[in-house]
Amino acid sequence: MVSNYRVPPKFDEARPYECWKNEVSIWRLVTELDKTKQALAVALGLEGRARETALEISAVDLNKDDGMETLLAKLDAVFLREEKDRAYEAYSHFDSITKGSALSMADYIIDFEQRYNRMKKYNMTLPDAVLAFKLLDTACLEEKSRQLALTACTELTFASMKSALKRIFGGKTACGTNAIEEIQDGAFFTEQRPNVKFKRSNGSSQSGYQRQQQGTNPLDKYADIPLLLSKTSLKRAGTILDMENDRVVMFKQTVPLELTSSGHYCVDIRDEHAEVSCNESQVLVVTGEMSTKEKRKVLLKLHKQFGHASAERLQKLIQSSGNTDQDCPIILQEIIRDCEICQRYSRSKPKPAVGLPLASQYNETVAMDLHELEPGVWYLHIIDHFTRFSAGNIVRTKKPSEIVNLFIHSWISVHGAPKRIYTDNGGEFNNAEIRDMAENFNIETKTTAGYSPWSNGLLERHNMTLTEILLKMTSFGQDLSSL
Fold first, then answer.
1. pLDDT tens digits, 245-295
2. Staple 79 to which of 17, 56, 123, 480, CB 3.0 to 4.6 Å?
3. Max CA-CA distance within the chain?
C-alpha cells in the first residue's frame, strides 16, 4: 500500500532541530496536502514547547500559502541555534567517537562516516591520511590487530584503511584479531611407552592409550599451524596471484586469500568437514568468546589446581601465555575473595610503622599550635615539616586577629606564604579570620582529628623541647614579656 504522506514528521527535541527541518522539507515535496494546509498539519502534530510556540501564530496566518515559512521562522527563533554552536556540536560528536565492544566493524565504519559527513557541512575537514589514522585509532583494536590493519592497508588513505578493516574484521564485534587465540595444554606421545600413566589432580591415574580414540590423530590440534609453499609447488599449481581482489588461481580454480596475524597472504587448505573433538578434561581454553560463567569455571579450576595460588600469580601465568582477556583479573579477585580456604590461611596485612611525610619540599606544609606556659600566657609555635625550621611568639590572648597578625609577621613576611597550614581543631585556628587569610594568600588549611595530638607529632615533640627551654629561662628570672 502506497502512503499518501498526510502525516508530517514528528518533532523530537532529543534529536537535532536541523534534521527535523530537513524531514519537513522532504515531506512537503511528497505530501498530497494542499499548500495552505501544511502549516496547520505540522502545528497540530507538534508537542511540548514546540506546540506552544506554534500556537502563538493565529490560524489565519497559518492557513496561507506562506504559512509554512511563518511557522518555521517562529520555530527557528526558539530551537535553531547559532551556526557556531551547531558546528561545535558536530565536531564534538565526531571527536568522541569510539567503537563499542558490541558494535560490528561494518556498523562502526558507517557511524564514523555519518559523523564525519555531518562535520563536513560546516567546512571542517581532515587530511585523508589523518582521517585514516583516526578511523584506526578509534576502532579499539589491540596492538597486534592494529599492526595487521596497517599491513593490509595498501595506501595511506581513508578508503584504503576502510577497505582493510572490512576485509580483516568484517562483521566481528569483538576487538582483536579474527582468529580466537586459545591456550591449550601440550601432550607428548611415545611409541616405546604406549601405556604411560598420567597423574590427575584428583589423585586418580589414567593410561595414555585408553584416552586415545581409534581413528583420531593426536596432531589434529596443530592443524592450524601455517605451512610455506615452495616456488616449485606454486609453479606446478599454475598459481596466479591477484592482489587487487585478494584471491589466487591454483589448479585453474579461484581461491580466496586470507591474512595471517603478521599480514602475510595465506590459503586455507584444511578439510572443511574435518571435526576436531576436544573436551575440557584434555584442553584448558580461556577465550573472549566464553561467557563470564564459563570463564569463572575454568579460572576456579586453575586456582585449585595450582594449590590456591594468589590472583597475582595466576594473572601473570595467564598473561605469559598470550591471553589478554580483560575480565580475568576481576574474576580472579572474586574467586580469591570467596574462597574459604584462602581466607582462612591468608596472612594479616602488615601495619605501617610510620606515616607518610606531609611535605617533600621547603614551605610546603607548615604546622602551627598554641602551647600554654602559665595561666594567661601562651606561645605560638610554627614549624616547617620538611626543614624542621621553627618560629614562635609569646601571646597573651587567643583572639583570631592576634594569631593572624603574628603568623604574617613571623612567617609569611620572612619565608613567604606556605602551600598548606596544618593545625588542630582549636577555635583560635578553626575560624573565619584564619580561613579568610588563607584564601587571600592561596593557602590550603588542614586540621587534625579532635583530641588527637599524635596526629601532629612533629610539632608536639618540638613543643616539649621549646617548653623546657622557656621554663629554664624563667627559672633564672627571665621575663617572658621581653621575649
1. 888 888 888 888 888 767 788 887 766 554 544 444 333 455 656 888 888
2. 17
3. 117
Neighbours of 227 (CB within 10 A): 7
Look at residue 56 and tell me whether its pLDDT is greater than 80.
yes
Q: How far apart are CA 410 and CA 390, in angstroms?
A: 10
pTM of the model: 0.32
Q: Which residue has the cell 587487487?
A: 244
**pLDDT at residue number 53:** 86
String of b and e for 139-171 (b: at least 16 CB within 10 Å)?
bbbeeebeebbebbbeeeebeebbbbbebbbee
- Give kind and range of the element (H or E) at residue 381: strand 377-384
Taken in order of first residue, the domains within the chain and their CATH numbers are 17-80 (no CATH), 84-169 (no CATH), 231-266 (no CATH), 292-345 (no CATH), 365-482 (3.30.420.10)
Grid coordinates representing 361 are 619540599
Partners of 421 in the β-ladder? 366, 445
CA distance 409 to 232: 94
E strand or H helix that includes residue 40: helix 35-45
H/E segment holding residue 365: strand 365-374
